[in-house]
Amino acid sequence: MSAREVHIYGGGMSGMIAAYSLVKEGYRVFVHEKEANFGGSSEYNPSTHVTPIDPVATSKYIGLNIENCFSPVSRPIPFYFNETKITIPHQGFYALERGTRPSSIDSLLYSKCIEAGVEFVFNSKLTAEVVERPKPSSIVACGLSPSVYKMLDIPCLKWEGWISRGNTRISNYAFTWWGDCVTEYGYFSSVKDYYFNLLFSTSPVGKNCLERYRKFLASAEGIEHENWKRTAGVVPLASPRNPRLFHKGFILCGTISGLMDPVFWFGISGAIVSGKIAAIAVMDPNRAELEFNRFTSGFSRSYLIKNRFWYKYFRPAANKVEKALNFLGPENVNILLRSMGSLALSGKIRQTIVPGFGPYNTEHSWTVISN
Ligand SMILES: Cc1cc2nc3c(=O)[nH]c(=O)nc-3n(C[C@H](O)[C@H](O)[C@H](O)COP(=O)(O)OP(=O)(O)OC[C@H]3O[C@@H](n4cnc5c(N)ncnc54)[C@H](O)[C@@H]3O)c2cc1C
């Protein structure tokens, strides 16, 4: 293998960003993707996602204009605690699409990679043999794929749930549902006439729980989906020390590197910047490590918030939270949330929980979720 040859395992979002950055630097780049086509894992995609992000600053950082892949969420985002609704400001939240439709981020990245000369090898998996003897500068960008975490012995948290997806007339909208039958939440997102709905949890999610969610969808949002299917995966949120750029002779890239928000599990903005960092790691490992540390500096704090506070006091008490909201009055809570948003803008509470470039705070690596 020539010194300027790089093998990337996983041709999803971050893998393609790393590939594009390296080919532009004169490397010969092979992307090994387990699926038969681009578009990410067929278990999870096509899909729509919502994330707080600054598309301009993110594009600038990765050296590729991906701004058009992001559509601003167009209305305040409802958070339902059972049936009680509060809303958070939607400014700074964007929806994007994964998969093979022309409007997806994968389509844009794939066409840019092909144009630049990246070589794709489809139906090609990272195997135990490759893991035994990695070629220098090999990158693993396999997302949330459980078998890869196992092969590489990366601590991970298992989750499971239900997915529904398809065409819709509602675009650029999102809401979440917090019920006591899941440790995480249910959420709907939509962009460009396509929707994705996911109910997920670290505990088993039975049909009863799905039925509750479906009843809620029909009564609160007037939405009825028939095509629910079971899904599962893992996330690198099993230890405050999860984030790692170099591991067992590989460079880790995307969510598997731990560049993910441990509280709400936003993974998009971290995975995007991580594609660029993995490319830097091939050329200048020390600089990449500094960048990686900068972008993961809030991880252990957010991890502790989730594990010491959230799971212990907040989640088991969805019904109590609902009662408290009703006692305070959902409208008063909305006003409070809006003013907390502006406080966060001016104060030091700027670095919150989502790695990547936030909508209001581009010089920091952790985003602000605020008004
Ligand atoms: C159902 C679901 C909903 C989500 N919703 C949101 C959301 O709304 N907002 C948000 O911010 N984040 C969300 N996330 C998280 C976010 O989607 C991920 O963190 C992010 O897309 C991961 O990007 P990546 O580049 O690391 O991996 P991916 O883009 O997932 O790419 C991984 C690639 O590796 C390939 N692969 C897997 N195993 C192998 C192997 N052995 N060999 C070769 N290739 C392999 C896969 O086929 C895939 O193409 C969600 C995740 C899931 C699963």
Provide a descriptive summary of the structure in words.
The protein has 371 residues and is α/β, with parallel strands linked by helices. It has one domain: FAD/NAD(P)-binding domain (3-Layer(bba) Sandwich), CATH 3.50.50.60. It is built from 11 helices and 18 strands. The chain is globular, with a radius of gyration of 20 Å. The model is unreliable at 342-350 (pLDDT under 50). The structure holds flavin-adenine dinucleotide.
Main β sheet profile: 7 strands, mixed
Which second-level CATH architecture applies? 3-Layer(bba) Sandwich
Number of strands: 18
Alpha-beta content class: alpha/beta
Q: What's the CATH class label?
A: Alpha Beta
What attributes does this structure have?
single chain; 371 residues; alpha/beta; FAD/NAD(P)-binding domain; 6-stranded mixed beta sheet; 11 helices
Summary of the model, kept short:
It contains 11 helices and 18 strands.
Write the layout of secondary structure elements.
Elements: E1 5-9, H1 13-24, E2 28-33, E3 47-52, H2 55-62, E4 71-72, E5 77-81, E6 84-88, E7 93-98, H3 105-116, E8 119-122, H4 128-132, E9 139-140, H5 146-152, E10 157-167, E11 173-178, E12 186-191, E13 194-201, H6 207-221, E14 229-235, E15 246-247, E16 250-252, H7 268-283, H8 285-295, H9 299-314, H10 318-328, H11 330-346, E17 354-355, E18 366-367
Parallel strand pairs: 1-2, 1-9, 2-8, 5-11, 9-16
Antiparallel strand pairs: 3-7, 4-7, 5-6, 10-13, 10-14, 11-12, 12-13, 15-16, 17-18
The chain binds flavin-adenine dinucleotide.
